[in-house]
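Hi D.,

Good news: the full-assembly prediction came through. Inputs first.
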Amino acid sequence: MFDLEKEIRKWKKSLQKYEVFEDGLVADIELHLRDTYNARRQAGLTEDDAFRQAVDQVGTAESIAAEYNKNRLVMLNRRSPLRPGRFMPALVWNYIKTALRAIRRQKGYSLINISGLAIGLTVCMLIVLWVADEWSFDRFNTNAGRIYRVYRNESATQKNSTSVLTPPPMAAALKKDFPEIVKATRFGYWRKQLVTYKDKSFNETRFMHADPDFFDMFSFPLIKGDSETVFLNPYSVVLTEKTAAKYFGEEDPVGKMLTVNNSFDIIVTGVIHNESLNSSLEFDLLSPFEILLKESIGEDNRDNWGFNSFGTYVMLEQSASSENLNQKLKGYLTKYAEEDTDELALQPLTDIHLFSNLGHDLRNRGDIKYFWIFSALAVFVLLIACVNFMNLTTARSANRAREVGLRKVVGAGRPQLIRQFFGESILMALFALVSALFLLEFLLPLFNNLSGKQLTSAWRNNPTLLLGFISLSLLTGISSGIYPALFLSSFKPVRVLKGTMRTSGANPLFRKVLVIFQFSLSVFLIIGTLIISRQLSYMKNIDLGFNREHIIYLSIHSELHDKYGSIRERFLQNPDVLHVTASMTLPTDIQGSPGTPTWEGRPPEAKMEIKADFVDYDYIETFKIPLVEGRSFSRKYSTDPETAFIVNEEAVRRMGLEKPAVGRRFGFWNIDGQIIGVMKDAHFQTLHQKIEPLVFKMFPGWLRRMYVKIRSNNVSATLASLEKTWEEMNLGYPFEYRFLDEEFHNLYNSEARLGKIFQSFTALAVFIACLGLFGLVSFIAEQRTKEIGIRKVLGSSTAGIVALLNQEFLKCIAAANLIAWPIAYFAMQVWLQKFAYRADIEIWIFLLSAALGLAVALLTVSLQTLRAARANPVDSLKHE
Amino acid sequence: MISKTLMAASTRPIILAILSRGEDYGYSIIQKVKDISGGHLQWTDGMLYPVLQRMEMDGLVTSKWKLSGESRPRRYYTITEKGRKELASELVSWRNVWQALVRLTKPIPAED
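Then the structure:
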């Protein structure tokens, strides 16, 4: 009996012998067979015959399979090889686990890596905070982009000379003459003012004056008072919070009266918040400019275009361009002051702090150079840490080789492995970031101490900074991971798994290059530190050519000026007081005086810039300035206060006077007189500047500072007795004095700061570099354990082995020195250019830094090599 | 009897031509070839399927399983745009070959 289904099953089995027949294909053909069978049956064939014919018609399984096979081959050739996905989320957990395992298994190395990176990151973050702080100056003003300072370009009279000091009528005149100037204010200071409230009185050095527009231009928030009305009354004052607290404590200051210089009263109309604001305009008290005109400089100076003593700030219309206005300002001054050939120019408010280099500028300024130096230092330290990471990771790469081989065998492509290792370095960097954030908190006060800043933990609330820190650590992770990732992912699985790979890890030459790079940076920093500190001590110890020790100075302003004579008498009665004298400006601060003096035999076209100060009797004696010719100012000569001049040697040289210069005619400020003495050249100015011509003249009306030279023993008792004398005289002003040598030290504050920061960063950099070296050496010593064992068995001494292991590194350090020396030489040469008087760069500095570098490296290396060399060879050779 | 090589060369254009009239399935295609050629084109039926598979790989046709009133699904083939282009160019080639043959086998006119 014919069973169709059975026959078809049998036929299908014959097809299924060929694996190429997939179920779908079989179904296709089966249907065809059935169709043919049905057709044959309809044509009248028996079941048996119909089936046989249908099978024939369909063809042999073998030939059909052959055709399908051809197709399959074509398909296989066409298909691109298996590609793992770009990112396999399923593997992430595995990556993390592997990374954590790698970190855990090599605790020492991970500690070195993470702590190095953490220190590097911390230093970078400190610098970022510092830079952000410097950058933020004046930018809190919402109108910062529209505010400009007007300055004078005095190049017409003196080469490259500029000044930010402008006359009182200028602000109003500019506002009137240029429609694009919508607001303008003067900002200035006249002199220290004695401010009294009840029994409290203080000499205020930051008592500034401005116009009502000030509050519309600048965004100092008034916490008390209304910006529209605070300056309505010319005799008003706005205090900062701190000042308000100083005078009034908890009381509400608004409406209270303060007395100025015991002569007039001002009413407090507002309190300003300026604590956290970085402003180049600094003040403790701010009053209308009108008070200055009325009480200090005189109403007649209201329109005096020659009275260049104050700052002028303007705010432009939103759409106005400062360049256009700069053009229009050409020749503007001649409109009001015919002989004034100076040009006016605008300086953006936001440039004042970092980019300004104008004459008579505000004190509280930064320096873009330090901005670059600090940033470079931070990058150096971070680079050294990154190099550690690269070196240690590649050195220990042998440990990971099997893993790489296996991953490759099971289908990981190079991109996957690169991503995996990047992931690991980024993970390390993130660990480092966490520790760095803690370190940052801890180091911030120290850094403030170094940099003279008041940085706070406010960064925690600043999303931009936080994001910046995170990106910084990501960047660190990527840059330190780039070489290890490329290197590790390049392993050939066959070689790795067969075990024919060298186990020394990365190319040792490259590793050496990295070590050389690290130590070049370190040596460079050591040389920099040495040269800076040498220049600093040179400046501190150089013979300035006069004596500044044990001299205190007091300001004699306002009424005190009139009492100078009697104070002097009283002070001199004290046996411990050696001299008392006075002058207009501090010796550190003597300024150039406009115009050219006249002298005997002066060629008509000859010009000479000269610095000048007005002094009192005994000035030369107090400062022990040696005279090379002539005499000092003396009471014996009645003409001295009128016509006597004392100049320095440089002035004599410039004037071309032949010896003796004493007795020659000399005139200045329309005073015709003669030279009575020639002083030896002395460094009154900072050592950045060359000694310039200098002239002293007596001028009792202009004395503003009093100097008291006291005996060197028992200074505090002398000062106490002077204070007592001062109180007895009932002068109405507090006894406020300072030491003059402090003032001289302050001239080099920024250099001293640079020196300290350089020192600390160098220490950190060297520390991190040594950390890396330590890791590297311990790795190499570990690898060569057997070799060391065999050498010892064969009779090598411990010293011999230490020498063997050390020499490789010592060569690197030597090479690093050779690279660092020329670079350091040129870089420091550039820095020293700032000083007219400088300590020479001497060879011993380089030798010393080389010795220091070597010593530190040797110590680090030997710690490990000694241990390896001392090990008992039995232990190292016993087990395999 | 049509030679094996010619059969092999003509299979794809013929299938394309049939499918260009509408979607179709294997058995039906074979029947149409037989009917239209008057039995001159005799294929081994089973060989059609690897050819269709290959044509699908080449993107000339697409296939879809369909239930059309019967209990078992059939695989229906549809010509693609690429297939139509292929068919057009095949037709040009075949016509060129045919024309050449016709011209060459014309009786040579007597030269006067």
